[in-house]
Specification:
Blueprint (H helix, E strand, L loop, with lengths): L6 E4 L1 H5 L9 H13 L4 E6 L12 H7 L7 E6 L2 H9 L4 E7 L2 H8 L3 H17 L4 E6 L12 H13 L4 E6 L6 H15 L4 E5 L6 H10 L4 E4 L19 H10 L8 H15 L7 H4 L8
Parallel strand pairs: 1-8, 2-3, 3-4, 4-5, 5-6, 6-7, 7-8
Bound molecules: zinc ion.
Zinc ion binds next to loops.
């Protein structure tokens, strides 16, 4: 596994902070970004172009994008749920836009006032503008393993959305367990079902640790061939529109598991643990991640 690279996309600035009571201000977010860059992170979701009244933590997204360091080889991702969000993300010069299509009608209507079909239609209408701006767009499918309102989500529905996302030219397709209900075996089954319709388009997985299955799910996704995973420093996060949702899998726990197994992540673990410790102070509460509490193994040479 020594020559297998796994790309970890840090989502703490977006998925993490958007549901945190601490309300980190723009300067605090820039400090967090600098520390993540020093820890080896090279791709991160930092902005969300949603209604600031609904998600006040993300209200400074455009301002933040004008101030992020642009000379460090970092890709900054902005999230969009509709046409307005996509236009704002492009105007803010995000390096990449992640457009969300929720795999369940009820969750889609509550999250972004659109069914999956309507969201795909919006994406189809805006793909040209993104192409003109030379901005890659990923489609992230939400609630792939279950919906907080409808319960089970049929795999056929997920596969249909993924096939259409591929047809529309998504640069990458994300599969998100938005409410943390997946199990590792179903992760493997759904990833394999989606791979059949997405060709060479890279798949990326996004797991929440709500029921303590997140890290096992990440391992199952890698076994199924996924090479890109989302995680948040400290395991912070949630979703304001999904009842009971808790944090993402923690970046340091994921990086530890992968590096221990011989994968390459590019993450400097001692630095990332320092960042997670700083985050506890900045947010003024503890974070759920575990490696930062237990320490590394084997101990790094002093
Ligand atoms: Zn999430």
């Amino acid at each position: 596994m020594r020559d297998i690279n796994i790309e970890i996309v840090e989502v703490g600035l977006r998925d993490g902070l958007q549901n945190d009571p601490a309300m980190l201000d723009t300067d605090g977010k820039l400090d967090f970004i600098d520390r993540l860059i020093a820890s080896g992170v090279r791709r991160m979701e930092v902005a969300s172009f949603v209604n600031p009244k609904r998600v006040p933590q993300m209200a400074d997204s455009s301002d933040l994008m004008t101030r992020v360091p642009r000379d460090k080889g970092v890709t900054y991702i902005g999230l969009a749920l509709n046409d307005k969000g996509m236009e704002r993300a492009l105007a803010a010069k995000c390096d990449e836009v992640n457009f969300v299509v929720v795999a369940s009608d009820t969750f889609g209507l509550r999250n972004q006032n659109a069914t999956p079909e309507q969201s795909l239609e919006v994406f189809a209408n805006l793909a040209g503008a993104a192409q003109q701006a030379d901005t890659p767009c990923s489609i992230v499918i939400g609630a792939v393993w279950g919906c907080p309102f409808e319960g089970e989500v049929p795999v056929d529905k997920v596969v249909r959305i993924a096939a259409r996302a591929a047809e529309l030219g998504a640069s990458e397709i994300g599969l998100a367990d938005s409410i943390g209900v997946a199990d590792p075996w179903e992760v493997k089954r759904r990833v394999e079902a989606v791979q059949k319709v997405t060709g060479d388009i890279p798949l990326r997985c996004h797991f929440h640790n709500t029921r303590n299955t997140g890290i096992a799910n990440a391992s199952a996704a890698i076994d199924a061939g996924v090479r890109i995973l989302d995680a948040s420093c400290g395991g912070i996060g949630g979703c304001p529109f999904a009842p009971g949702a808790t944090g993402n899998i923690a970046t340091e726990d994921l990086a530890y598991m992968l590096e221990r197994a011989g994968f390459q992540t590019g993450i400097d673990l001692p630095r990332l643990i320092e960042t997670a410790n700083w985050l506890e102070t900045a947010l003024d509460h503890s974070v759920p991640a575990m490696v930062s509490k237990a320490g590394l193994f084997p101990k790094a040479a002093a």
